[in-house]
Amino acid sequence: MKKPLRGLVYLSVIPLFIYYMYGNNLHFIEVFNQVSILELFIILMMMFYSIYIHTFLHEGGHLLFGKLTGYSLLFFQAGNYRYEAKTKKITKQDNSIPGMLGQCLMVPPKSKDYQEKPYFFYLAGGLFINAITGILLYVGSFYFPGKWGFYSFLLSIIPILFLFLNMIPMGYTDGKVIMEIKKNSLTKKLFFQQLEMAFYLDQGHSFLEIPDSYYEEAETGRARESFLGEYIQICEYRRQLTKLDFALADQRLAEFLAHTNYRTSVYAPLLMCEELFCDALFGRKKVPEKSGKRFINFQVCVGTIQSQYALEQLMNILLRLV
After folding, report:
1. Is the separation of the CB atoms in 196 and 202 below 8 Å?
2. Contacts made by residues 209-217, CB under 8 angstroms, sequence distance 24+
3. Is residue 54 within 8 Å of 48, Cβ to Cβ?
4. What is the pLDDT of residue 108?
5. Environment class of residue 318 by beta-carbon count within 10 Å: exposed (0-12), middle (13-18) or buried (19+)?
6. What's the rounded Cα separation, in Å, for the pair 195 and 107?
């Protein structure tokens, strides 16, 4: 269902184009007779590179509406460039989450109960900005004369697609997260807990220094009831690694993987690397060969080098044995 749904989003450009042509009383040949090949090439290149601009605007929408509802910024990332609120520095990230063009991670207000904390405007802020940008450019296509109206229509396509793709309830889109939070009190709690745990880690705390209450849902298995609990389960796994309790860490990871579809998880590369690490640690030589068949591209996963944390824990073991 996911690919057809995403395909329908891209096809939504067609009725927008038809309405643009009909509303301006234009004919296809008439429009392209006014446009030179060079100008069309330039506009198409502008469309392509505007992806980065609209990514920045989308994440800026999260930042703006998050601030308006009492959130505090942890980091703001567009492409491979990240601004850290703690250090007030911009750094280039070598690795990024596959399929994620940007991220604005913020911490919710502290003074409210989980069920009372605001979330809608923070999550929908990017959608609002994409909607405003796309609508202005599309409406402009009906007012700008001649070929400039056509160019305005072309430039409106990217923000409109950003809007639609982030609204559809699939993957880890804003629309999907909003729908998931609305399900029940547990999913709302999981959403806010992962933001707060990210804050602890951002401030330099270890997994052991995060209050035990944040791991309760992972320990009881309730975190597995929603994809919003994935981050908490990974933190629980890493907490056991930090304790050097590798048997329990391996158990936690196995429980997580048994109830997770890697292909839809934003943590897929990390999960594969960590499972390979545990398989190697416990001498399960034939397991990686089998599991590799049900994972996403192996080279992509290894290229992310996201098992660095696990390797650091292995070094801790070796140092203790020496």
Report:
1. no
2. 210/235, 210/239, 215/239, 217/186, 217/189, 217/190, 217/193
3. no
4. 93
5. exposed
6. 6
Residue 179 token pair: 């729908």
Phi and psi of 142, rounded to 5°? -90, -10
Rg (alpha carbons) of the chain, rounded to whole number: 23
Q: How many helices (H) and strands (E) does the chain have?
A: 15, 4
Q: pLDDT tens for residues 193-236?
A: 999 999 999 888 999 999 999 999 999 999 999 999 999 999 99
**Claim: this prediction has a pTM higher than 0.90:** no
Buried b (16+ CB within 10 A) or exposed e, 274-298: bbbbbbebeeeeeebeebeeebbee
- The amino acid sitting at 39 is E
CA angle 44, 48, 49 (to 5 degrees): 120
State the Cα–Cα distance between residues 10 and 32, nearest whole angstrom. Answer: 22
When pLDDT is averaged across residues 117-122 and rounded to a whole number, the result is: 95
* 222: its two tokens: 């309730």
Q: Cite the beta strand spans of 46-195 per DSSP E.
A: 72-78, 81-84, 89-92, 102-107
The predicted-structure confidence for 24-48, as pLDDT tens digits, reads as follows 887 777 777 777 888 888 888 998 8
Distance CA 82, CA 102 (A): 9
Q: Are the CB atoms for 274 and 302 separated by under 8 Å? A: no
CB 130 within 8 A of CB 218: no
